[in-house]
Give the backbone structure.
Amino acid sequence: MTELAMAGEQVSGMSELALASEHGQRMMGNLPGYYSTSRIMNSVMYAQGMELDMLRQALDETLAQYFVSTATWGLDVWERELGIAIDPAKPVEQRRSVVLSKIRGIGTVTVSLIKSVAEAYDGGTVDVAYKPGEYRFTIKFIDTLGVPPNLDDLKRAVEEIKPAHLSVNYEYKYLVINQVQAMTINEIQSHKLTDFAPFIPV
């Protein structure tokens, strides 16, 4: 290999070094063109650029903790603030739904409030039917097949906000026989067992 080719490879390698960092690339673009062949300047821009990249990532992650829908490691703070038991073993989405429902559950209890709290847990459409003459209301899951995975959390949240004299029933959506008969084997196998209507002995 000629010296000229080796020098060309070194320059290419140096340029790729700075390009590995978004901020390094931007800073390199602001320098005069003759610095693009400088090993020292490429190394400096790479090192400083990587530090700025990591700083930007840390700032973005910190900002994300201020919003329940994007919080991850900051969920502990939300839960402590709202008096929710911290359970790191629970999936992040379920923890977020508990926090959201707790926030939504503050204020006068209405059908729309209960609907809002229930939908925060389920992530789908929920219908709330209030029957004042029977002192009860029913929460019906419209979009979700089977029993929602964090139903126990939802039940606790509803018990906390509903008036004590009202009882609550839960209705679930299942795949029924005529729907299953119209499905292929692959479609049936793609569903969880809990998506199908339970067998109730006569």
User: Anything to note?
Assistant: The CA atoms of residues 21 and 50 lie 6 Å apart. Residues 1-14 have pLDDT under 50 and may be disordered. The radius of gyration is 28 Å. The first strand starts at residue 126 and ends at 131.
